[in-house]
Amino acid sequence: MHIAAHQRGADAAAVGNLLLHLPNLLCSLLVMVLLSAFFGGIGLILVLIWLVSGVLIFHRPTESALARHVLRLRYPTPDERARLEPVWREVIARAGVEDRTYELWIEDSTSLNAVGAAGHIVGVTRFALDNLPNGELAAVLAHELGHHVGGHTWSSLLGYWYALPGRLVWRALRGVASGVFRASRACSCFLGGILALVFGGFAIATLSSLYGIPLLLLAVPYALAAVNRRAELRADQHAAALGFAPMLAAVLNKLHYAQEQQKAAAAQAAQYAQYAQYAQYGPYAQQGAVPPPKEEGRLSKLLSSHPDYHTRLHHLQPYLQQHP
Fold first, then answer.
1. Domains located in the chain, CATH noted
2. Do the bridges between strand 121-125 and strand 114-117 make them parallel or antiparallel, or are there none, so unpaired?
């Protein structure tokens, strides 16, 4: 086993994630500064605590609490550990990663999935542990290890944490805007116009005082999704470079097949419901017919955090050609 010089780093996807969270960070900093001005000395202490709290993502007790209470993970049982550890040792031996660097967790789920989170968490579902052969399980673990080695996990969590105050205020402003709109519809046109002018003036003043930074928040989710898709491809490449390309391709094919089966089942259920309505109401059933499942729209695809399976398999082709 050759120990790598760097157990984790920050590739372009991790750096891009941090940069894209910068507008949210600035808004969060403004929120915290306003809170400190309101609460005085105690508020300043709160701001300082918030600024240094990001290091907790590498604090193992904090990570354990995050794994249990947020991600709903648990430690492996002795039987699960006996199944999982030999596969994991093969992965970290190829990657040159020390055994103590990361911790293995289990998610009680019936889906084929895995997760890499915070600074040291590598989790896999019970379904994947019970149903995948060793090679494919190793490919899944190598993919999650790729997120850690590339810095995707810590950068995402760090960006999300420091953006949280700004996100909460943004949601509050959206709620106020929605309330103003409903009030303007319920009240008279004159009162509704006054409310709209007041809220509009406040929004314009906020945008001008912050140099239009809040407008960037509208585009940030799409840019973050694009960076996350790139991070997934980077993690795939990490697993493939370790020699797990054929196994990873087999897992992706299984996931794609399961997705197609779900779509077919949903379409069949909608068709069956439509036939049942026709049998009950005859030609009048068309008025209440159950619509077929909608295809994923272009905007929803832009917000997807994972590339489609065809794209992922396409990027694996150079590695697959090395393993005929």
1. 12-217 (3.30.2010.10), 243-320 (no CATH)
2. antiparallel
